[in-house]
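Moderator note: this is an archived Q&A kept for reference. The question asked for a predicted structure of one protein chain; the sequence and the answer are reproduced below.
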Amino acid sequence: MGSKREMPSSEASAKMKAKAALVIAFSFVFILANFAGLCLCALQEGFYRGKCGVADVELIVAGVVTTRFFMDPTIVAALLRLQFHDCFVNGGGGRYNVQTGRRDGLVSLAQNVSLLGPLASVSESIKLFAKKGLSATDMVILLGAHSVGVTRCSSIKHRLYNYKETGKPDPTIDPFLANLLRSICAQNSSVDNIVNLDQMPLGPLILDNSYYKQLMVNRGILQIDQELATKPCTRKVVRKLATSFDFPAQFHAAMVKLGATEVLTGKQGEVRRHCRARNKPSSS
């Protein structure tokens, strides 16, 4: 599936996992949308207070997510991706660990979906984010979620073997990394293996700025990742984040901003009983 990683001591690993789990558990309160009552209010802090009697709903969700994380660390990337998709389509959910109360959309059509693909260019991505009221800087910060993300070989093979019909790998990718990825993604293999987007030993476990540090040395996995470090409109931001000590705070702020895009509240949407489908009309 991927290259073997050198793991730290069990104690250090446990601490790292606990730290990451807490970040994720308290960050993704958007799961709580399924508990919301019939209040027609806008987003607000403590939206779920009193919705389940004396139970602390946010603490319950945090506990469930934390437990799940220790069973499956990939939940970090999964929840980040869910939040991104939820806010770029007519979805519901909340907003990080501050204001909550978003509703789910009343319309669910494929033609309304506009999401980034693995071959998207930086300029295309900037335009898409701009439509949601997000800047190029916001985009670069949010793509830092790739620090804990994964992809499939099918999304990167074009960079490894025959980049732009040259018969050679992408010249912007580090040769050592290219060789490593080719060992995971054989050219004629029918198996679509998983590849970590952050190749550092603790990459899949920790949401940090190591993603940007690797972009600075040509170790971006996806094409758009590496382009962030080379395009004039984004490379300065990448350089700054690579040496930043407050990336978690910047990422938090960007996620809050993302969560505030195209908010549906009150009668503009609904709280779905089942996330994958609209509520059935009342028989009354």
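Archived answer notes: The CA atoms of residues 19 and 206 lie 8 Å apart.
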